[in-house]
């Protein structure tokens, strides 16, 4: 990946005029979702949307539509923003053929600059939660990056999986997730009700994912 963290990716988007910073005060519902949908419908050059003045929150920032347009997807792949869909597809195939690659492990990753653990975790204070869809039953972390491992072979990083899943916030420290049989995550938690134990997973992985 050409970017070490989300900040550097946003800087790249901004350099290509593909990051729209919205400073006007907005309502979390329905303004955020409406803006995201409008951006996609207006053009296939939809920029990423960055909000930092959200009613009801004193220090909240929301980023949406990071790869909603072809230009942003090209930037994410470190290609020219004007690259065609075919060019991006061919590059994707080339990289896929080279997969897997050896992981790079760092002692001080950027995401570790802000960590919360134990009783200090309170999702309602850490994140600007809002309902993205009109009929959502509650607050969801949409497409959060979830890292899972085989519970019977926990220290085997070769079988570690990362996937994007929608998680419902049920409590200050509890999330609900529903992996279906075709999901890799389902492989790592085959009998969650029978085992009756929690599956470790950071509830704010999305903050570190692009």
UniProtKB/TrEMBL annotation:
A GO cellular-component term linked to this record: cytosol
Domain of life: Bacteria
Example GO biological process: ubiquinone biosynthetic process
Domain 3-octaprenyl-4-hydroxybenzoate carboxy-lyase-like Rift-related: 107-181
InterPro entries listed in its UniProt record: UbiD (IPR002830), UbiD-like_N (IPR049383), UbiD_Rift_dom (IPR048304)
A Pfam family reported for this protein in Swiss-Prot or TrEMBL: UbiD
Gene Ontology MF term list: 4-hydroxy-3-polyprenylbenzoate decarboxylase activity
Domain 3-octaprenyl-4-hydroxybenzoate carboxy-lyase-like N-terminal: 10-91
This protein's name: UbiD family decarboxylase
């Amino acid at each position: 990946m050409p970017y070490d963290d989300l900040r550097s990716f946003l800087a790249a988007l901004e350099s290509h005029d593909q990051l729209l910073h919205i400073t006007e005060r907005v309502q979390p519902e329905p303004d955020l979702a409406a803006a995201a949908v409008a951006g996609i419908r207006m053009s296939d050059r939809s920029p990423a949307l960055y909000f930092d003045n959200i009613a009801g929150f004193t220090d909240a920032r929301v980023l949406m539509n990071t790869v909603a347009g072809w230009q942003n997807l090209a930037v994410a792949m470190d290609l020219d923003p004007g690259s065609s869909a075919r060019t991006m597809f061919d590059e994707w195939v080339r990289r896929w053929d080279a997969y897997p690659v050896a992981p790079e492990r760092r002692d001080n990753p950027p995401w570790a600059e802000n960590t919360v653990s134990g009783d200090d975790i309170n999702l309602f204070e850490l994140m600007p939660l809002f309902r993205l869809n009109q009929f959502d039953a509650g607050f969801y972390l949409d497409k959060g990056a979830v890292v899972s491992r085989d519970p019977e072979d926990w220290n085997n990083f070769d079988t570690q999986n990362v996937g994007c899943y929608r998680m419902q916030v049920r409590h200050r420290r509890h999330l609900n997730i529903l992996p279906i049989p075709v999901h890799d995550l389902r492989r790592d938690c085959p009998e969650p009700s029978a085992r009756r134990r929690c599956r470790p997973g950071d509830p704010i992985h999305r903050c570190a994912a692009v």
